[in-house]
Amino acid sequence: EDRSASRLLHLDKRTGEVHHRQFRDIINLLEPGDLLVLNDTRVTALRVFGHKPTGGKVELLLLREIEDGLFEALVKPGRRLRPGSLVTLEEGLLATIEADLEEPKKAVRFVKGTKDRLYQIGQTPLPPYVQETLHDSERYQTVYAATGGSAAAPTAGLHFTKELISRIQQKDIQIGKVTLVVS
Hints:
Elements: E1 7-11, E2 18-22, H1 26-29, E3 35-39, E4 41-43, E5 46-51, E6 57-67, E7 70-76, E8 86-89, E9 94-100, E10 105-110, H2 115-121, E11 147-150, H3 162-170, E12 174-178
Parallel strand pairs: 3-12, 4-11
Antiparallel strand pairs: 1-2, 5-6, 5-8, 6-7, 7-10, 8-9, 9-10
């Protein structure tokens, strides 16, 4: 539950010594005048599951909405779903593979007005090494996430808390922000 209680492996580059710490100890490793750069990207991609008319399983990772009802997506199995292919999702929601985009992406069209239903059935995409079910999608956002559009969180940043960031700033450590979108 406490993000900053995660483990932190610290290699002292001057001595070569390895120290096992907790992430909250990062404040002791930073010095006044240092610059800490944080990626403020926010995970907005959605993972939805369905099937082809033949019954085969389909997974869509909706990366961004191009226009109302049309999404840029990663599709599994991508090669077998050509433009014109239909996909049936939960609750009978239908999607059509509209076009091949730059490999491996495709344009996927949903009936207009179904966006709310997509967000109800969609899941936050998690990396394959996270095995537990995510009950609160905010747990896979950094506490400083601001700019949407990413398919994955900057995972090292998940260990910061608002309190830890405040303590870092009080120590006269500058914080810069960049937006690096993962898609």
